[in-house]
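Known limitations

Structure tokens in this collection are predictions and should be treated as such. Users comparing against experimental data should check residue numbering before alignment. To illustrate the layout, the record for EthD domain-containing protein is reproduced below. The input appears on top and the generated tokens appear beneath it.
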Amino acid sequence: MEKIIYALWDADADQLLAGLAERLPDETSNLRVNLQDEDVAAGKGLIQSRGDALPNALVQLWLPSANPIFRSETDNVIAEYCASFHAWLIAESAIIPNEKHPPRLGKRTEGFSQMAFLTLPEKLDWQQWRAIWRDYHTRIAIDTQSNFEYIQNLVVEPLTEDAPPYIAIVEECFPVEALTNPLVFFDAVADQEKFEKNLATMMDSVGRFIDPGTIDVFPSSQYDLS
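Generated tokens:
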């Protein structure tokens, strides 16, 4: 089985939720849709952009093979729900499975899901970047935030021509209050000292493997559809 993440531009959110699952091939599994919608609009302060327009929806799924001859039917279905899309082959690592607020089939998951699209900084080669992100930063992300789901999606390769140069796509679920309250986001409710410590630790860590202005980030509503 192989995981694919599709990023959709100008997607019809209602139609995705209503009809996508039934249109995809029978062998599709673990279908998840992430939407930039009104439920996360308050979190506009969390948005970061490399400069290009951000997708307004993601589709995550597993197929027996991401080979083009076996993926073409899925690509064609996805194309019907948006103006354009890109896709990446993914190696998934479930750092924190969502056991606190487990997804309910077809329903919006509790809180919100922050999607972060990482690119390779000029100061590092891929091996250096991977070692810092996976071997060092993972523990920081667990210890300094209120995330109750944390999925690291390592990009194996782009599956569409001219796809944005992402090397990882991170999904983290947070309490809804974290959309607007940094103390909730950094797991430091009513504790300013802990907030400042966690924030400083996080900023120091991300500065090691992320160059400012080179990543895309947005909050989303998460729906598991299979």
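For this record: Helices lie at 13-23, 68-79, 126-144, 182-185, 192-206. The longest strand covers residues 84-96. Please report discrepancies through the issue tracker.
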